[in-house]
Amino acid sequence: MDAAFLRFLLPADAGVCIAAVAVTSGLVSLTLVTTGDGAICPKCWSVTTTVHGRYRRTLHDRPCLGFPVSFAVTARKFACWRTDCPRRVFCERLPELAELHARATSDLTAVHRRIGLSVGGEAGTRLAAGLGLATSPDTILRRIKDGPDEPAPRPRYVGIDDWATRKGHTYGTILVDLERGTVIDLLPGRDGEAVKAWQAHLPVEVITRDRWPAYIQVATAAAPQAKQVADRFHLLTNVREAVEKILSRVAADVRAANAAVNAPADQAPTAPVDTPPASPSRRPLSQARSGGRLRGGSRGRSGSDGSKS
Ligand SMILES: [Zn+2]
């Protein structure tokens, strides 16, 4: 491949140039050399041009035309000239290309982070492999943790409920963005005091909650404009309790009605001798064949036994 063609793989101000290109075993490998005149000491911010040595970095990048791409970067180590600086030697930074000590370019890192934020670690690994961006679940999760916090949109529908760090002993309060199904915050205690800190962040339209008095008070005080509704869990719980209460009250009547309905069938007299059964098709074949010749008890084993009256 042509080096000029592959130049588009690199950021415009990456501070490197392509020294060589090699395509082996379906892998595109670019040898890069840094081009800056000097570097800035990360401790004292002095500019230095004294090269102390060189070292090699390997960076993996996004695939190009379906081929995996890696950069072999020859970077430099610089010596700080200031005698009062605690950092004698430092590695050259390539902020536009990759983070310090990273083994993947910033572009590839960002893609992994976006995949992880979209579908999670395990599913993200399978998706990334299909896209030629093979990685591991741990790496995707690490990319998410190391990445900048995404600005969260202001929630419109918020759920407030308690949660237990130790059931029966220690409880906190959880705020949930019901539109996105994400946790907004975990707060200590469930007396509503911690929620008051959220007062400025609660210009919400709807708050769902249970009937815990502290939550009623804090929701009313913190977001008076919001409509408060009982959450689905507690509504269903209330319905279940109401149905159980009604059924327990009328249980005796239900049992009596059931007995009355089933009584004729349970106490039904045996079929008359000459009356054919109501559903001969459901009788055993032996009975069906001899049914017309039977006398007396035509049900049960009498027919099959061949007993006749
Ligand atoms: Zn320095």
Automatic annotation (TrEMBL):
Sequence ranges assigned to domain Transposase IS204/IS1001/IS1096/IS1165 DDE in this UniProt record: 158-257
Region listing for Disordered, in residue ranges: 261-309
UniProt feature, compositional bias: Low complexity: 261-271
Transmembrane segments: none
InterPro entries: Transpos_ISL3, Transposase_DDE
Pfam families: DDE_Tnp_ISL3
Protein name, UniProt field: ISL3 family transposase
Superkingdom as given in the UniProt entry: Bacteria
NCBIfam families: transpos_ISL3
Source species: Limnoglobus roseus
